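Bumping my old thread because nobody answered last time. Still need a sequence for this structure:
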């Protein structure tokens, strides 16, 4: 029993058991004769980019036998049907294997360096027998939450007779729906039987919001006697394969969720799978938000086609895991919701420097916030916005590096670039208790470098010099309250139009930050 629990824990939290920065798919499924393409991620340091990449098969005794490597080695088992390609530009390598057989099922590793070093990721490959297309069974393969139409032909003599669909459960067919109006309770509200107009010798059964439990063998039938027409259907309901997402600790991730126009007006959610099939809401369009994401999450307004995105900044180790987005009127995962899935990996060998996540200031004093940005993008426009939790979260801009400042902040807010050192500084003077809150540092370039900082207003003298409070990622950064905010180097934008244009650029180029046009600078 203990072993069972342990196995479950390992299955659910595989990231905890290893600190390896290599990431790939935990499970790959395919059928005989098909091919697979397996992508493995590594931190794109210059050493990693050039080092050997391999794919090996784990043996019973713990060893791992190389099947293919980036040095040109290909085992005889893979001769002519596999290749390994390195993409140093984005820190990935891809293993393609064709002509799969059931013998290829097993446990593998993809990794860097030599097999025994542990800089690797465990991948399990499962190759199953292809669906037998015997006895004129029609195979329907449909994604979870979607719709299937099962077509059932019949002969003229059965045109006036009862039409029905059965599901094979165990040894027996169980009636699902028939033309007399019966509907099995498992399908209530999501199934219908259509009989085509006269002359058409076909009826069809449409099942919506497919569930995993709908998968199986079906039989449609016209007529009940020995002259009845029968047709078999094999329904396969696919769970979406999670898309792999590899991000740096302290960085930012964006989940784009496009579930199709059919659910454009249904409530949307992003949830994180905890144990088993439970999925805890991270954020939804009904206004719910998990406390762990306070200040560092935004749900982008939906497009007309119902697609939306969720941005999370300040990634933490514990954010790693399986995320699902979906649509359901309850705003959370329910059976039959269409979903999309991601597996998020948080690379602890982050290129994003540590910066204070909490900055304390005293009323009447000032704070200086350091915002890291990707050094390669010194020319990007830098922004600072105020996170608002209302509704689905927004982040209206307060200041940018082009000299624009939101009207209410004129004279007490400035953004200073220090070219070349990979940080910009935002100084906010004449603090009041209303300035407490979460602020985001962003640029119109690399979207991974978005960071969140919380400003806390504490009791005290407004003339404190920069002091460390001892808290690991906290400090008090107060400058003299009389300090004038330095004039930015560039000419201050004067016209409202210019500021609006800059704001539109910002929305276009980082369309994932939720903000509605009316919250822009023009409301000033
Ligand atoms: C990495 O780069 C290659 C080649 O540019 C591209 O085909 C591949 O899709 C990229 N992979 C990821 C995960 O971005
Ligand atoms: C690698 O293998 C895949 C699948 O077998 C094939 O489509 C692809 O062309 C191969 N690439 C190279 C560079 O040989
Ligand atoms: C095909 O039909 C035959 C005879 O009706 C039956 O014995 C066999 O089990 C069927 N095979 C499958 C895969 O359904
Ligand atoms: C209906 O659901 C129950 C419980 O999940 C299941 O045992 C039964 O086999 C289902 N019946 C059909 C026709 O799907
Ligand atoms: C950049 O310069 C500022 C001000 O001189 C300094 O406080 C900060 O630590 C520097 N940042 C880095 C990453 O060197």
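Sorry it took so long. Here it is:
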């Amino acid at each position: 029993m203990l072993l069972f629990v342990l196995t479950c824990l390992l299955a659910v939290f595989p990231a905890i058991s290893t600190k390896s920065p290599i990431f790939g798919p935990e499970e790959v499924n395919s059928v005989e004769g098909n091919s697979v393409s397996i992508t493995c991620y590594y931190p794109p340091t210059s050493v990693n980019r050039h080092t050997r990449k391999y794919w090996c098969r784990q043996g019973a005794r713990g060893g791992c036998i190389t099947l293919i490597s980036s040095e040109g080695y290909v085992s005889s088992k893979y001769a002519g049907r596999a290749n390994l390609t390195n993409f140093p530009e984005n820190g990935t390598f891809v293993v393609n294997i064709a002509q799969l057989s059931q013998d290829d099922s097993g446990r593998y590793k993809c990794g860097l360096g030599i097999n025994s070093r542990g800089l690797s990721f465990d991948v399990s490959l499962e190759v199953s027998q292809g669906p037998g297309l015997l006895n004129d069974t029609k195979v329907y393969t449909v994604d979870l939450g979607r719709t299937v139409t099962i077509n059932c032909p019949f002969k003229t003599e059965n045109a006036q007779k009862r039409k029905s669909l059965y599901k094979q459960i165990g040894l027996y067919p169980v009636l699902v729906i028939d033309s007399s109006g019966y509907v099995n309770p498992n399908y209530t509200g999501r199934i219908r039987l259509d009989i085509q107009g006269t002359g058409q010798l076909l009826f069809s059964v449409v099942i919506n919001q497919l569930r995993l439990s709908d998968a199986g063998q079906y039989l449609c039938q016209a007529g009940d006697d020995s002259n009845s027409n029968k047709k078999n259907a094999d329904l396969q309901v696919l769970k979406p394969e999670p898309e792999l997402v590899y991000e740096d600790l302290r960085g930012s991730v964006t989940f784009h969720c496009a579930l199709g126009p059919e659910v454009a007006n249904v409530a949307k959610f992003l949830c994180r799978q905890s144990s088993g099939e439970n999925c805890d809401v991270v954020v939804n369009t009904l206004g719910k938000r998990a406390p762990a994401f306070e200040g560092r999450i935004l749900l982008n307004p939906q497009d007309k086609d119902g697609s939306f995105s969720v941005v999370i900044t300040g990634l933490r180790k514990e954010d790693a895991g399986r995320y699902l987005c979906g649509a359901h009127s309850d705003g959370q995962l329910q059976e039959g919701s269409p979903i999309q899935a991601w597996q998020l990996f948080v690379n602890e060998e982050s290129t994003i420097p540590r910066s204070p996540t909490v900055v304390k200031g005293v009323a009447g004093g000032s704070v200086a916030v350091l915002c890291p940005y990707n050094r390669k993008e010194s020319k990007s426009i830098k922004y600072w916005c105020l996170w608002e939790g209302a509704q689905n979260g927004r982040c209206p801009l307060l200041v940018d590096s082009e000299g624009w400042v939101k009207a209410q902040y004129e004279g007490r807010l400035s953004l200073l670039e220090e070219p070349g050192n990979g940080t910009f500084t935002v100084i906010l003077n004449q603090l009041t208790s209303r300035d407490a809150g979460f602020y985001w540092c962003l640029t119109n370039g690399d979207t991974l470098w978005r960071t969140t900082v919380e400003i806390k207003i504490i009791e005290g003298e407004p003339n404190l010099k920069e002091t460390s409070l001892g808290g690991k990622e906290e400090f008090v950064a107060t400058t003299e309250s009389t300090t004038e905010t330095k004039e930015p180097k560039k000419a201050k934008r004067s016209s409202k139009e210019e500021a609006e244009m800059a704001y539109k650029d910002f929305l276009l180029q980082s369309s994932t930050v939720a903000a509605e046009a009316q919250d822009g600078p023009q409301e000033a």
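The pocket of 2-acetamido-2-deoxy-beta-D-glucopyranose (ligand 5) is lined by residues 353, 418, 421-423 (CB under 6 Å). Let me know if any region looks off to you.
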